[in-house]
Amino acid sequence: MSMSPLSVWEKESFFAPADIVIAGSGLVGLWSAYYLKKSAPHLSITIVERGIIPTGASTRNAGFACFGSLTELVADAQKMGEDHMLELVEMRYKGLKRIARLFSEKDTGFERYGGYELIADNHASVDPSTFSYPETLSQAGQPARTIDVNELRSNIDWLNRKLKKIVKQQKTFHLQNEKIEEFGFSGIQHLIANKAEAQLHSGKLCQSLLRLVQSMGVTILNNIEIKGFEKMNGHLLLHTDQPYTLTASQLLVCTNAFARQLLPQLDIEPARGQILVTSPIDQLPFRGTFHFDEGFYYFRDLGDRILLGGARNKAFAAEHTDEMVVTDLVQEELERFLREVILPGRNYHIEHRWSGIMGMGGEKMPIIRAINDHVFCAVRMSGMGVALAPMIGEKIAALMTDGTQEFTAD
Fold it and tell me: Does 12 lie in the same domain as 141?
């Protein structure tokens, strides 16, 4: 059935020309709308979402209020340099504080159980040869081996010193090996606790943000995909998959992994993250968020169940896709890790499986920039959108309203 032409009421309300149209109603799009309205309440803002609800990663992630694990941050320092690593950590830390300040724990399911990193018996030391911190890690080029506890402590001390100015505490990370047996893990040599991590309910967070921006006067249109745009008479005509166009003075692209559909020049690649959830576990012995293998595996309690995701590094090529399905290869690897490491000898079954699509690229720094006078983007969250989105939204809002705080890594 073809759609009837828009009524005059619809044209002058829902579909009226907007000062700013935001493509994508995920976390970055919602936080951007919030800060745009906060800094310039007079702006008319419409968010256009291609799905019934945010489609991508915002409501399909693991619900980590993610600060970052020790080995992940050390690896980031190697790959992108210490300054950029610390800049990302600071944005995550401040972003989590803003979520907790703006919303009640009931609104977002925010829980402060802390986080942990599991170091396996055969964990490989990270090669520090690309940066000059000889006190941090083992000698370059050594094969996978058991980590000496004194060496690990020196690594923790190094990162704690670097993070002290950000988190305002002496020890963000510390060893808690005594909890390995208490938690029931198998094949784990060391357990590193992280005071800065938390967890939340991604769906509740998105719902809370949706209610907030709508109360500020933001219009949200669902089931509409922006397919392209062109400049005409000083405005943008936004072509959609519906039989009408939208008009805006500015377009902000917040579609993250799917941003190249509108801005093909950007360094962004989709990366699928797969997740499973168990049945209730009798007397589940732990609470909190857990990382393994530089964050490629991650799990947390979900009440008395376990949510486990990751293993993307077992099939990098296959998981560089925007196809939102689960695969046997990754799901079987997740089940193996669950069975052999997290819950050895326990009875359970898998109740839920799903996937989401993250936006990755040649580096981890987000892309926050003006494409031209009318088009902007805030994309490439690299799987850290929950924590980064508040700060990214503020930065792009400042850039769009007064040209300040331009921030680009592209």
Answer: no
